[in-house]
Design a protein that fits this description.
By secondary structure, this protein is mainly α. Helices cover about 60% and strands about 0% of the residues. The two termini are about 40 Å apart.
Length: about 80
């Protein structure tokens, strides 16, 4: 099944090779990059306020709201 999906239902056979070659790219990056370039809260800060010129104030506010609702529902169900 995975082979069918990687090859777009045998219309692109190179897709199976691409699925394996992608690991080489990420392994090369893992050897050159530092462990973390930014502090742990930098992604949260980007969700709250993306520093682009024309970005809305709460560009990903719905993501934060749904995450909060999920955490609340998960903890209150116990």
């Amino acid at each position: 099944m995975a082979g069918l999906l990687f090859t777009s239902f045998p219309t692109r056979p190179a897709g199976a090779l691409d699925a394996v070659r992608t690991y080489g790219v990420w392994l090369a990056r893992s050897r050159t990059a530092t462990w973390h370039l930014h502090p742990w809260h930098s992604d949260l800060g980007l969700l709250v306020r993306f520093p682009a010129e024309d970005a809305p104030l709460w560009s990903e506010g719905i993501v934060l709201a749904l995450a909060g609702a999920g955490v609340t529902a998960g903890w209150s169900a116990r």
